[in-house]
Design goal:
Number of helices: 16
Helix content: over 70%
Structural class: mainly alpha
Distance between the termini: 50 Å
Shape: globular
Largest sheet: none
Amino acid sequence: MRIFNRLSKNRSNEESLAPNPQLEVGNKATKRLIYAFMTICALVILLPLVWLFFSSMKTQADLTVNTWGPPKEWVFSNYAKAWKGSKIDTYMLNSIYVTFLTIIITIVTTTPISFVLARYNFKAKKIIYYTIIAGMMIPIHSAIIPLYMMVGKWEMYNNLSVLGLIYGAFRISISIFILESFMSSIPKELEECAFIDGCSVWKLFMKIIVPLSKDGIVTIAVLSVLACWNELLVSMLMLNKPELKTLPIGLIGFITEFNSEYTQLAAGIMMAIIPSILFYIFAQENIEKGMIAGAVKG
C-alpha cells in the first residue's frame, strides 16, 4: 500500500508538473499578439525615417511628383550640398557643445543631491524632495517669457554656455527623480561595511555609490541629450548670431521666403538625427538597466 501511495503521489506530481496545453495555447496566442503589436509600433516608428531617407535622395522635381515612393534616381549630392551650403558642421559643433555642457551640469548637480535624499533621513527631506520633483510639472517652454526677460536684463544673449545652463536647470527635477530611486535600491549593507572599513562619506559617494549608479547616470545623460539636441524655441530666442546657431535653428534655413530646398532639408535632418540615434544605440543597455533597477525600491 505504501508503494502504491508513493506511485500515485509521483503520478499526481508528474501530472501537476506536466504542461497544460490550454495554457500553452494561451501563451502562444498572447506572444503572437505582443509580437504583432510590437511589429506595428516598429513600423510606425521606422516608416517616417524611411520616407525621410527616400526624400533626401530625390531631386526637387522627383519629390514633387513622387512624394511617397522610393527615388527614381538616387541623388547623393544632397548631403554634400546640405553639409557645405548651410554650415551644418558649425551648427553641429554648437549643438555638441551645448549638449555636453547640459550633461555635465545635470550630472554634477543631481548626483550629490540624489545621494543625500536617497541615503540619509532628516526632517525636511520629503519637503525638499517633493519641491524638486514639482519642477517636472513646469516645461521649459512655459518659462520662455521670464527666461527671455532675465537673459536680456543681464545682457547674456548669444551665449552658448547660458543656453546649456538653462537646459541643465530644467533637467534637474527628472534626473533627481530617476537617480534618487536608483540609489535607494542600493543595499544599506554596502554602506555599513564601507564605514566599518574607515570609509568617509566622500569616498563612499565617489567609490561605491557613483560606480553602482553608473546605469542611472547614463540614463539621465541620454535623456538630457534627447531633450536638448532637438530643442528649437528657446535656442531661437537666445541666439541671434549665425555662427552661434544650433542644429535645429540651422535646419530652418533651408526654407526661406523665396526658396524651399526640401530635399536638402531632409538630408540635413538625416545628418542631425544620426548622432542621437548612435548615442542611444551604444547606451541602450545602460538605459534599460537604469530604468528597471531604479523602478523598484528594495
